[in-house]
Specification:
By secondary structure, the chain is an alpha+beta fold. It is built from three helices and nine strands, in the order E-E-H-H-E-E-E-E-E-E-H-E. Helix 1 packs parallel to helix 3 (about 140-155).
Length: about 180
């Protein structure tokens, strides 16, 4: 299949995520038009998370976006011969979202974790990140967004919403 347009495309299929909102707000990415030459400069972690959850179970996205006084956890566990080969965790506590990969021992992998605060308008504001053991704070927004963009790319290009017999995805939502 040949792709002529390198522009990142947003979908309008979810009323909660209007495609005309600016970068930094979550969007549904048109994964049918996503390819290796797509310009991902405007891709953000919010887009990757929203797209993954929506493509897995659209009703779960509403739970995730209900920021109020709730906690939401999602874990995607992929195994090969009973050994974990890929884990991604998304956790939202109130308006603070943490997303990244888990180490084989279950803790956050220090090579790629990003945290964002969802402000009152719904925009995701970089909060902090871990990058190869370095802790980045909110003054380093561009580096935090780069880590978030890398995680989003892994989610989208790896089609991490697809569930196979070797993979499971579990979500929970609870009051704080």
């Amino acid at each position: 299949m040949e792709f002529d347009d390198p522009q990142l495309k947003y979908l309008s299929t979810c009323p909660l995520l209007p495609p005309e909102r600016p970068v930094g707000f979550p969007h549904l990415i048109d994964t049918e038009k996503l390819h290796e030459d797509t310009d991902t400069d405007d891709l953000r972690l919010a887009d990757g998370i929203a797209t993954m959850i929506y493509k897995w179970k659209p009703a779960e996205l509403e739970k995730f976006l209900r920021v109020g006084n709730t906690k939401y956890d999602l874990l995607r566990d992929e195994r090969e011969n009973r050994t974990t080969i890929f884990n991604i965790k998304i956790r939202r506590v109130g308006n603070l979202v943490t997303c990244g990969f888990l180490s084989p021992h279950g803790g956050w992998d220090p090579d790629g974790v990003a945290r964002y605060t969802i402000d009152v308008t719904g925009k995701w504001v970089p909060h902090s990140a871990w990058d190869w053991g370095d802790v980045l704070e909110d003054s380093e927004e561009e580096r935090i967004d780069n880590i978030g963009q890398s995680i989003a790319s892994t989610i989208l290009f790896g089609q991490r919403w697809i569930i196979t017999p070797e993979c499971e995805m579990k979500a929970s939502c609870a009051a704080l």
